[in-house]
Amino acid sequence: MENYIEPYLFQIYFAIGLVVVGYVFGRVAEQRHFKSIINREAQLINLVTTNGKKPLGRLENIERCELATGSVVISVDYFKRFVASLRQLFGGNIHTYETLVDRARREAVLRLKEAHPDATQLINLRIETSSIYKGQGNQVGSVEVLAYATAIYT
Amino acid sequence: MLITNTEEIAGKSIDNCFGVVSGSTVRTKHVGRDIMAGLKNLVGGELVGYTELLSEARDEAMERMKLQAQSLGANAVVNVRFSTSSVTAGASEIYVYGTAVTVV
Amino acid sequence: MKYSAKLPNENHNVSGEHPLKEFVILVCGTCVLALGLYWILGKSVDVLVDNMPPIAEQLIHQQVNEYVSDEFQLQGEKNQLPSNIKALMNGLEQCAGLDYPVSLHWQQDKQVNAFALPGGHIMLLSGLVEQLNSENGLAFVIAHELAHFDNRDHLRAMGRGVVMVALSTLIGLDNAKVFDFLSPVSQLETAQFSQQRESRADELALSIVNCHYGHVGGVTEFFTLMQNKENHSTSKVGSYWSSHPPSQIRISSIEKLVVQQAYEIKEVKAL
Fold first, then answer.
1. ∠ CA(B43), CA(B48), CA(B50), 5° rounding?
2. Are residues A126 and B24, on separate chains, in Cβ contact within 8 Å?
């Protein structure tokens, strides 16, 4: 006589533990991050930012232009990865990854702006994403975003 | 809602600019499609399931960008750029961004 | 041209759905999918096995037999049986009416157990024979294993093994994590199936023993032995995943069958 669940028991407890830890810590970190993003976006709201090649309006006495960059790498927690791998069985939007890439992009743009708070305009903004670290079994480990633009000072 | 990937819209002039708006999505197909795509890899040809996935993801990302532009009060998005990345195997991640403006 | 500084009042790029809700829906969906898929595939294996002609069954037996004999080193002196058990085996085999020969083996082992190996081999562990007092109790254990062959249960198990491997290669190739999760779920189906087959084997074993002795006295001796052991270990939840039904249930269903089929119960023979 054998019991089919026994060989898996350790594996199951381990996975449940990781999912719970991933959910609790990931959720706290995410909510804190979104709060900080919203605050900082409100602070920097008056910094003119476009992704056009030409500055808005007619700028007199341009002092200098420089390349502005901002980048961030954000990791996935175990809970998000687990839900995403189940979602891949059924198809549809992977909601748990959407918040991840949204956070990463807004954070990268914010860092770009924070590095040039005195610029008159930020133009020609471009955003690139990549996953630099692939975890086990081709799963994503983290999302990397690079934002770059031209900062114009007058 | 006008969407272009040029800086200006021919025949119209931009009178108000709202900054950068963006839309993004991460989508995946069900596992049956993945299996079929794996089999199709043997003989080559178009992976219809994945083409569909890409266009769905693109449409959804654009829709989200439009919603954002609308909530700012814009009636056009100019200078639209797409960017994709492989967040995870078998899923499509599309990011689209542009400058929200009002044109007259 | 003027610049109006504004922020969108809500985030359109993420869904407002609570992640735990999605988690619960996906986990339930996956469990239903895994059980359903495995159930359908298991049923098709059953249909295939039930309709398999005896010649195909014999062919598979020959193939497996060679492999199993080598693997378990079944030939040799240590496997010689006492003569009374040999005679019992012959009698039972005639009653079982199988299309191919089944050989009985003997192994020195403290465990109280017996099992059937594909290719027509039944392995008795010496611990079992030491613990049993009556020949009838032993006869039922052997008849139970013979019944497994008669019901082609080893073929079903092999077929399910093939299905499992095929599924794991299709789904699990680039999604190892999901498969880790699916396998315990599908094992639940395997266990339920196995328990059902065990009950069927008990049923057939009862008629084999009745054919041999003309009565079914002492058949539950083995389960009474097992029951004492189970009382110390098995948990309630674990029994759903067990390959065999709990002994208490097996004893009561055998007793029910005895009444139903009007089998006689007479004096048992000492071993």
1. 105
2. no
List, in order of start, the domains of chain B with CATH numbers: 2-28+55-103 (3.30.110.70)
Amino acid at C88: L
Distance from CA of A60 to the nearest CA of C (A): 15
Three-state DSSP state, A150:
strand
3-state secondary structure of C236: coil
pLDDT at A38: 93
How many other CB atoms are there within 10 angstroms of residue A154's CB atom?
A: 12
| Number of C-beta neighbours around residue C264 at 10 A | 11
Residues in chain C within 8 Å Cβ distance of B89: 174
If you measure CA to CA, which chain A residue comes closest to B79?
Answer: A52
Nearest Cα of chain C lies from the Cα of B10 at a distance, in angstroms, of: 16
Q: Contact at 8 Å (CB) between A92 and B56?
A: no
CB neighbours of residue C256 within 10 Å = 10
Domain locations along chain A: 6-153
Which residues have CB under 8 Å from A112's CB, separation 6+?
A: A68, A69, A70, A122, A125, A147, A148, A149
**In chain B, what is the greatest distance between 2 CA atoms, to the nearest angstrom?**
54
With CA atoms as reference, the chain C residue closest to B39 would be: C170
Which residues lie below 8 Å from residue C173, measured CB to CB, with a gap of 6+?
Answer: B38
Q: What is the pLDDT of residue B32?
A: 82
C4 CB within 8 Å of a chain B CB: yes
**3-class DSSP state of B38:** helix
pLDDT digits 0-9 by tens, C148-189: 888 888 888 888 888 877 877 776 555 556 666 667 777 777
C173/B38 touch (CB, cutoff 8 Å), yes or no: yes
- Asked if B90 and A88 come within 8 Å (Cβ–Cβ), the reply is yes
Q: Which CATH fold topology does A6-153 show?
A: Translation Initiation Factor IF3 (3.30.110)
What would the mean pLDDT of C196-215 be, rounded to a whole number?
A: 88
**Ranges of each domain in chain C:** 22-230+243-261
- Taking only residues 150 to 189 of chain C, the set having a beta carbon closer than 8 angstroms to any beta carbon of chain B reads 170-171, 173-175
Over residues C92-120, mean pLDDT: 81
Chains that touch A (3 or more CB pairs under 8 A): B, C
Residue C223: closest C-alpha in chain A: A1
Cα–Cα distance measured from residue A3 to residue C249, given in angstroms and rounded to the nearest whole number: 17
Nearest to C2 among B16, B21, B72 (CB): B16
Cα separation, C90 vs C104, whole angstroms: 10
CA distances from C64 to C104, C131, C158 (A): 16, 31, 11
Counting Cα atoms < 13 Å in the Cβ hemisphere of C49 gives: 19
Q: Is A145 helix (H, G, I), strand (E, B) or coil?
A: strand
